[in-house]
Amino acid sequence: MKDYFRQVQNKNHPVYYQFIDNDSDETVVFLHGLFSTSSIFRHFLEFLKCNIILMELRGIVWSKCKKPFVENYVEDLKLILDKEKIKGAALVGYSLGCNIANEFAEKYDKRVSKAILLAPVNRSLKEIGRKNLIKQLLMGLGKDFFKKWKEYLRLEKSCSPFKIFGFFNFKLLKDSFQRIIFTKKCKIIILNGKLDTFFDPKDINLKLPNIIQKRIKNFDHFLFLRKKRIEAIAKHLAVLLQKA
């Protein structure tokens, strides 16, 4: 583990995270997805002036985890906020991170100022069907996924394919589709631009205040691999995050 990571201990394992102190009264927490690490958000740091927490989901890269379930990640996040003495924060989730952000916002409502969702999963396992889940997942990852993922690993020298794919856990995948929540804390949802899989905005029936939905052309689910893609959606997030 690199020196710039902090850690907090849950009942069984350490939880790693970065805390970037910009001497602000506001804090934004970034929650990554299944096949990646918190570094996918690094280009957002260029335009944010608030304090930032980059959480590493235990069991994916840095640490082992026997029970990698959404509810446990929620408690990990609470431990981090408690340790840093942060009473409230804005949450930004990507993919699996959206489930964590929403579950946390529902359970600890007063500690969340807003939940911003990027490429959320919005169809339950019951709707997709067990037999179609893997097919839908592969479609959701998008065209040239392995080529893009190889590029990501080349940039992330500390992350080996074994560490990430070694975590690929069907229990967690199932868990992330069991209960789809869109909390009243949601402020913006950025959806993929060309895929008609479980990320299709037509499947979302949101009757929540202040919801903004964006569908960006030519984006697939793995939209964070290149800096230009982050720059393309930054304009949708900058204002909201600066007013976290």
Overall description:
The chain is an alpha/beta fold and about 240 residues long. It has one domain: Alpha/Beta hydrolase fold, catalytic domain (Rossmann fold, 3-Layer(aba) Sandwich), CATH 3.40.50.1820. Helices cover about 35% and strands about 20% of the residues. It has helices at about 70-85, 95-105, 125-130, 135-140, 145-155, 160-165, 170-180, 225-240; strands at about 5-10, 15-20, 25-30, 50-55, 90-95, 110-120, 185-190, 210-215. The chain has an eight-stranded mixed sheet with strand order 1-2-4-3-5-6-7-8, sandwiched between helices. The chain is globular and about 45 Å long. The two termini are about 30 Å apart.
For the biggest sheet, the summary is: 8 strands, mixed
Mean pLDDT: 77
Roughly what percent helix? 25-40%
Shape: globular
> Roughly what fraction of the amino acids lie in strands?
15-25%
Number of domains: 1
How many H/I helical runs?
Answer: 8
Helix and strand composition category: alpha/beta
- Main CATH class: Alpha Beta
Q: Radius of gyration, rounded? A: 17 Å
Tally of DSSP β-strands: 8
The name of the CATH superfamily reads Alpha/Beta hydrolase fold, catalytic domain
- Topology order in helix (H) and strand (E) letters: EEEEHEHEHHHHHEEH
CATH structural fold name = Rossmann fold
Q: Give the name of the CATH architecture.
A: 3-Layer(aba) Sandwich
